[in-house]
């Protein structure tokens, strides 16, 4: 019992500890002898093999302009899916044979190409003044500066620490005739003792990061060279290149740089992981709205950015730097915001109209839309996802309590289906859905054991998985942290709580299998009835905590048998719900009930348990 709970008992005497009693009429209220069996362990841990293709992370240094084709340049090969849509005039980065105009090269999929260019025509025709301004700022500001606002409430602290500057603070009156370049310092000052390591890490994550080799290999013109109906933002007309032979559109360099910087900041400050990813894709979409790039261009920029970032993240030369960047970023930001490891996440999501990324539902929809830009699948959609070597490192700070293989399993279980244009690359970079991966598993295969450590704070102490989790595997929670499950889940291998707190935040949070609470706590905050698809078992030394938000809104509905071998039941009331004295409230229903609780705690009330052959109700006495 917590200190706060103990004080409540002593001061108000309104919280009653009840020994197991109730029943009557022949109802069995005898204790269960012996512990019931836990759900069967699947007997294996999911293994996510490496793709057969040579790994980007092992060959990242080949992404240089001196390497001519996809056979020798790993960056060019990562974008190989584009070759199914467009055949360059010559498969070399030698641009002397290319005019930079649409009449050189061959469109291999006319429908996708037309959709690609029409998207830009439509977007630039409908472009608002506010969108034109945002497109200008993301074009002319250094990308490492412009995307920092994705940190929301943490933006001011980050900029104060990084000492980042920019000379582009708005759209100049003469921008339609004068090209302005950012004279600021990009990510910031790399030499400050408090934050310099963060700036150095961001800069280091762009090593071998040029899009120029791929641009010069694929030789795909910019959209405004394909159609005069593409309306480049007037303030960006001076930025249009006059040398088309060195100005390919695919992939987008701005999108690539912006997403690499977003990944770096998400890694260093994972409390805003998803928001930073969305900000990176917003910068990319602004390239389309500006008329400078097409959807396929910015999709290619994102795909290549993920590979480049992972390559640098896995480079042993950056191992100490990335750890220091994470530590220094948190030390500084927490000091500036008056937070600690366990309160920073809440502060980072303080509701504010100034935070464009405050709505998670909108963020998710925008991220998914920008992954495919509405293109249809042009190949089979049922090809199993591959996870590139080293991609799991992207999730190191966001899911720190999982091991590397578990993070690979998360990436595979949340990847997009196959078949979309550009996205079916040899390793699997294109299909990675990092926004969804930050929300945990999409499916359990084999035995998934999660061990959290509340003493370490942050995500080790508390996290939430929001995906709909399927599969045939089993989830086991150990340790001392709290893991909340929000999805419409359907996995069938069962759930076991041996330590910590597993929070059921949806009516189907626990899937379709058996649930076994051997230690720690199962906490139900489900808005309605928490459905347990199989059997339920609870052992002595464990706790079931139910937050009831209304009559029967909080009921644990067990489709099989509920076996209560002791333990504690705690009943709380939330969302302003106040039970009526003299009324009884069902808290457990089952096909059959065996055993009783050793202790029942009802917050704020005296109460009596009433057992039946198929469940338990609580009568509020006063």
Structure write-up:
- InterPro entries: Acid_Pase_classA_bac, Autotrns_rpt, PAP2/HPO, PAP2/HPO_sf.
- It comes from Pseudoduganella buxea.
- The chain has helices spanning about 5-10, 55-60, 75-80, 110-125, 130-140, 145, 155-160, 195-205, 210-220, 225, 255-270, 275-290, 295-315, 320-335, 345-350, 360-370, 405-415, 435, and strands at about 15-20, 85, 105, 445, 445-450, 460-465, 470, 475-480, 480-485, 495, 500-505, 515, 520-525, 530, 535-540, 545-550, 555-565, 570-575, 585-595, 600, 605-610, 615-620.
- It has about 625 residues and is an alpha/beta fold.
- The protein folds into two domains: about 5-40 and about 445-620, no CATH class; about 110-210 and about 220-435, Phosphatidic acid phosphatase type 2/haloperoxidase (Vanadium-containing Chloroperoxidase, domain 1, Up-down Bundle), CATH 1.20.144.
- Strands 5, 8, 10, 12, 14, 15, 17, 19, 21 and 22 form a ten-stranded mixed β-sheet that branches. An eight-stranded mixed β-sheet has the order 1-20-18-16-13-11-9-6, with no helix packed on it.
- Strand 21 and strand 22 (about 615-620) form a beta hairpin.
- Helix 8 (about 195-205) packs across helix 11 (about 255-270) and helix 11 packs antiparallel against helix 12 (about 275-290).
- The two termini are about 20 Å apart.
């Amino acid at each position: 019992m917590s200190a706060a709970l103990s004080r409540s008992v002593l001061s108000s005497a309104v919280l009653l500890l009840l020994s197991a009693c109730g029943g009557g009429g022949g109802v069995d209220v005898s204790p269960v002898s012996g512990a019931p069996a836990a759900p069967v362990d699947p007997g294996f841990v999911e293994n996510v093999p490496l793709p057969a293709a040579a790994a980007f992370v092992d060959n990242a240094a080949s992404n240089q302009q001196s390497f001519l084709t996809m056979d020798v340049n790993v960056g060019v090969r990562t974008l190989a899916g584009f070759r199914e849509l467009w055949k360059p005039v010559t498969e070399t980065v030698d641009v002397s044979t290319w005019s930079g105009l649409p009449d050189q090269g061959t469109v291999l999929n006319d429908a996708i190409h037309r959709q690609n260019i029409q998207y830009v025509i439509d977007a630039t025709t409908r472009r608002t003044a506010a969108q034109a301004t945002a497109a200008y700022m993301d074009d002319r500001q250094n990308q490492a500066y412009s995307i920092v606002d994705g940190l929301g409430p943490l933006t001011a602290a980050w900029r104060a620490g990084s000492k980042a500057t920019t000379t582009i603070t708005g759209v100049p009156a003469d921008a339609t005739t004068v090209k302005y370049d950012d004279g600021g310092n990009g990510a910031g000052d790399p030499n400050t003792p408090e934050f310099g390591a963060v700036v150095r890490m961001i800069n280091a994550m762009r090593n071998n990061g040029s899009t120029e080799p791929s641009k010069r290999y694929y030789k795909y013109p910019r959209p405004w060279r394909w159609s005069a109906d593409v309306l480049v933002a007037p303030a960006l007309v001076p930025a249009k290149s006059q040398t088309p032979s060195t100005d390919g559109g695919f992939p987008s360099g701005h999108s690539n740089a912006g997403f690499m910087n977003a990944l770096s900041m998400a890694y260093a400050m994972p409390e805003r992981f998803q928001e930073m990813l969305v900000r990176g894709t917003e910068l990319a979409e602004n390239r389309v709205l500006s008329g400078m790039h097409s959807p396929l261009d910015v999709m290619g920029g994102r795909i290549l950015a993920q590979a480049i970032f992972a390559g640098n993240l896995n480079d042993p030369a950056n191992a100490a730097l990335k750890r220091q960047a994470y530590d220094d970023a948190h030390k500084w930001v927490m000091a500036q915001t008056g937070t600690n490891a366990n309160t920073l996440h809440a502060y980072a999501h303080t509701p504010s109209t100034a935070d464009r990324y405050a709505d998670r539902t909108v963020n998710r929809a925008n991220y998914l839309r920008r992954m495919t830009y509405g293109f249809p699948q042009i190949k089979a959609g049922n090809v199993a996802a591959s996870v590139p070597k080293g991609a799991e490192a992207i999730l190191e700070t966001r899911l720190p309590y999982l091991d590397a293989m578990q993070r690979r399993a998360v990436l595979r279980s949340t990847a997009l289906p196959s078949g979309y244009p550009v996205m079916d690359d040899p390793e699997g970079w294109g299909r990675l859905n990092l926004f969804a991966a930050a929300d945990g598993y999409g499916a359990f295969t084999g035995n998934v054991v999660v061990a959290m450590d509340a003493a370490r704070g942050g995500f080790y102490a508390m996290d939430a998985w929001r995906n709909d989790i399927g599969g045939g595997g089993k989830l086991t929670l150990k340790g001392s942290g709290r893991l909340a499950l929000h999805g419409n889940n359907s996995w069938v291998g069962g759930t076991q709580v041996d330590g910590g707190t597993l929070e059921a935040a949806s009516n189907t949070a626990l899937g379709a299998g058996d649930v076994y609470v051997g230690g720690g706590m199962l906490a139900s905050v489900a808005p309605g009835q928490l459905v347990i698809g199989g059997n339920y078992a609870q052992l002595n030394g464990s706790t079931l905590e139910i937050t009831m938000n209304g009559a029967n809104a909080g009921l644990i509905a067990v489709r099989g048998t509920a076996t209560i071998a002791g333990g504690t039941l705690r009943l709380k009331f939330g969302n302003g719900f106040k039970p009526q004295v003299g009324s009884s409230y069902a808290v457990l229903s089952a096909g059959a009930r065996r055993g009783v609780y050793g202790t029942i705690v009802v917050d704020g009330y005296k109460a009596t348990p009433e057992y039946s052959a198929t469940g338990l109700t609580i009568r509020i006495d006063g």
